[in-house]
Here is the input.
Amino acid sequence: MTTLWYKNAILYGLDIDKFQDSNGDGWGDFPGALGRLDYLADLGVTCLWLLPFYPSPHRDNGYDVVDYCAVDPRYGTLKDFQTFLAGARERGIRILIDMVANHTSDQHPWFQEARRDKTSKYHDYYIWAQEPPEKSAHQPIFPGAENSVWHYDEVAGAYYFHIFYHFQPSLNHANPDVRAEFQRILKFWLDLGVDGFRIDAAPHMIEPKDSPETIVPHPHDILREMSAFVRGQSPDAALLAEADGEPDELPAFFGDGREMHLLFNFYLDNYLFLAFARRNANTLGRVLTQFPNIPREGQWANFLRNLDELDLERLTEDERQVVYAAFAPDEDMRIYNRGIRRRTAPMFGGNRRQMEMAYSLLFSLPGAPLVVYGDEIGMGDDLSQPERNSVRTPMQWADELNGGFSTAPVSKLVRPVIDTGEFGYERVNVTDQQRDPDSFLNWMKRLIEIRKQNPQLGTELCHVFDVGAPEVLAHQVQLDGHNLIALHNLSDKPLTVTLDVNDTLTEALANQAYPALNHSREFSLPGFGYRWFRTVARR
Ligand code: MG
Here is the structure.
């Protein structure tokens, strides 16, 4: 029986190769990350999502895997991973690891065997065609980078299907042998003690792919079978799915509590940024009240940014243009005709008040919040890097060589450190912010602490108040009589709103000191101001 620990998890997305290099080879590694566990424990995060660390040609940030049961030597050894896991456990931090089950690298031994020998069982792990269909039902995930979902392989003398890059052939999960392989892989990591998996590209894993042998009667059975297997092995383990879709498609991924435990909340993210761009909470308020119900075992993983593009696919074209105009005015800041490849701090122009308001709002919404490494210090992006690598630069620890990330020569770094401008490591780094009680890092620590003191935010019941000012989102989250009411001013103008509640309010978090409430129901908020209240029902 699961303890539902993930419902109140504070998630932290961590890319090992960009976090801390311990041996001066320019690649972050597990021993380096081990040395930073006290930092993460002090920050207060409770669960790390580790991006892929498997052996890989690294043509897609490690999402092109060649061996699912090993650690890329540049990241350390399997023993180093185990030491890191034990260190995290000692500090009460859980570990979810990325499971890239939708596709392998074209260098994976399965694919190499598959292309050489049509009679091999590995051939049927993938999807082949002598002639690709004239009109595919699928579009490449990365338009501009890929033109088709079918790629000709000269060794096989046939085309194979790939929804992601052409060097990432899709696996056929309708084939029971593929599913058995992944059960073996999941068991390998569960036996080592991981707390669960982030399931990459979950909807693509189960969708039919231009070919009859990829069709199963009930596609969600593929994920349910995986989930049942994981629960059987480790009842407390959690599965976090990357599932972007329309709201009516999402509850199926929770499968009445028998499928995924957590879903990344792409839908909410779209409307958060629309609200930030318009400085108007109306649409967001409506979205929050119309959110689909999810089972007791399920939870949303809420975020402002993850380590991909900020995907704005759920918005209409007009709405997307509003977000672009506010946060990605240059064409180069946009990507794949649907998103933005910037980090939060530069999108907000480094405006501390707006950044606080945005994270405060994120943390006050029902769900488990995600912070991506570096966002806690307001790190920037590097638009000179291709595609999504703009948001995947090394962690900035100190005003030292390579930002304290590595002692390697600059030319050897896994990615260049941001070393110039407003977001360069001289100006934005952990060490300076640790010294400054008013830093964004120390503010984020406090936000995490307050979030932990309000476990009712782990429920999904949310009520939105009409306060007569469309710039202000006023919402209440409650569980078992414990209520939290939050006010967020999305605009830069000071406002006063009236809130119709009878309960006694106690201030829990605010952007500044406010006068005592004295039962007044009028609340003033400066531009980008925010206030959280705990409520006690009057008898
Ligand atoms: Mg290293």
User: Anything to note?
Assistant: The mean pLDDT is 95. DSSP finds 15 helices and 21 strands in the chain.
